[in-house]
Every structure is written in C-alpha cells, then in structure tokens.
Amino acid sequence: MSIIFVKTPKGIAEIEQRGGGLTPRVRRVLIMLDGKRTDDDIRAMALVDDLEQTLETLVEAGYIESPKQPEASAAATGAGIVNTVTFREVPDKPDPKEMEMAKNYIMNTLKTFCGPMAHLSIYEAVTAARTHEELRAQFVPWHNAITLTRDGRRRAEDLCADLLKVI
C-alpha cells in the first residue's frame, strides 16, 4: 500500500526559505512530495537508499503529513487506510488486559518495523491512553508509520486485523 504525503505549512516555508537546515537529499525528497506522488513514486525518482527514514524524519519534524480526511468518528473510519475500518464495540466494562494488549501490540510493532526510537509521539499517546477511544485515535498514525517500511507494507493487512481484535 502506497502513502501520499503533502507538505505542511512548515514544509512549504522550508521550500521557500531554506531555514530548517535540511540536507540536500532530504530537501530534494521534500520538494518531490506534492500530494499526488506516492512514496513508491518518490522511491523510483529520488535515488535514495533510505527513503523510509527520510520520510520518517520529515514527518517527525513536521514538514509533511498524510492527507487527512474530514473529521469523522474514530470508531468508523481509518482515514484512508482501507476503505473503512470498523472497530469492535467497546464492552460496557472494558477489560484492562485488552487495553494493555493493544498498547503493547502498537508499541512492539512500531519497534519491530520502524525502530526503537521512531515515532515517539505515537508511543507517548499510546502510553497516556486511558480509554479505547484514545487508543483508536492512534490507529491511523500507527498504520501510517508501519507502512513507511517495506516489511510493514507487506504485513499491514494482517497487523491491522490483529490490532482490531483488541482495540
């Protein structure tokens, strides 16, 4: 599954002013991201060995993001990940073990596919989550992070299915 990124206002300002201290290689990738090209298109054009790391750097620094769909209930949409993600119904008395399983699953898959220090904002939000709804709000960022890697893209469907069982 390919991801299309768009420049944030900070990314647009960086293109115009060159104030962020980006390396020429990272800047070239930022320029190529136009909201139409997928990460696979950029990979073919950019001659960059570590595109996943470059994209991750640009996302974490706030220069790019995945396009957002209109705000909708987190329980009804995966914001473009798949046509529609349907979360299971939250039980009247949520099981703390399921919450812990979901948190561990998110953090372990991020470590496995993205590295131990990548996407710290997702780790922090997952750690702070106290309800299923708060965890579900991290589903889209988690999926986007996982699919930045080749192995993550290959396994994304299975990973999502496993997470949706407990989230």
Automatic annotation (TrEMBL):
Superkingdom? Bacteria
Identify this protein by name.
Uncharacterized protein
The opening ranks of the lineage are: Bacteria, Pseudomonadati, Pseudomonadota, Betaproteobacteria, Rhodocyclales
